[in-house]
Amino acid sequence: MIRLLIADDHTIMREGLKRILDGIEDIQVIGEAIDGHDTITKVRSEEFDVLLLDLSMPGRSGVDLIHQIKEEFPKLPILILTMHEEEQYAVRAIRAGANGYLTKESAGMQLVTALRKVASGRPYISMEVAEQLAMSAMPSANNNQTHSALSDREFEVFCHLAKGKSITEIGDILHLSVKTVSTHKTRIMQKMELQSISELVQYAMTHHLLN
Hints:
Layout: E1 2-7, H1 11-21, E2 27-33, H2 36-45, E3 50-53, H3 62-72, E4 78-82, H4 87-96, E5 100-103, H5 107-119, H6 127-136, H7 152-162, H8 167-174, H9 178-191, H10 197-206
Parallel strand pairs: 1-2, 1-3, 3-4, 4-5
């Protein structure tokens, strides 16, 4: 039996996942978490076989949360379930210690297979993500990719800026203050030596970061 903890701040999403898993004999949802703090608390208080984790929740989330969980519970498999389709998000999550990566759009068809796979100790990633991981391991791969110098949070902000999101909108999506998002934007522009958002968008398009 796979004992599952679902961590997602949207009640509708958690209920939908439970409906998908209802009747699956070898998977049982025994815990739910609504933010990063709640996730850590639940993981510390009960034993789970898999953590199904949303990348964007209030409080500590994303790659930071993966790092913390893996430091405390290195053997707990983590399957990421996210709205982000970009392979770069997946690469950063896998590097942080996640065992699998699944988009919410494809969850209905692939969720059970993905959960069984990571619970058995095997990774669950798409061919596109596997290719990105292989490419990023090559010394020449990052020569012309200044986005590789961004922190994980900066990369999240970068992707949203490239999609035309405002500072306020990004703050709402990532649960950050407007001031924090503005600081990240400034650092992104400095690190990537960009002069305008239009240059940022062009860079994102050139490097296929807007899939």
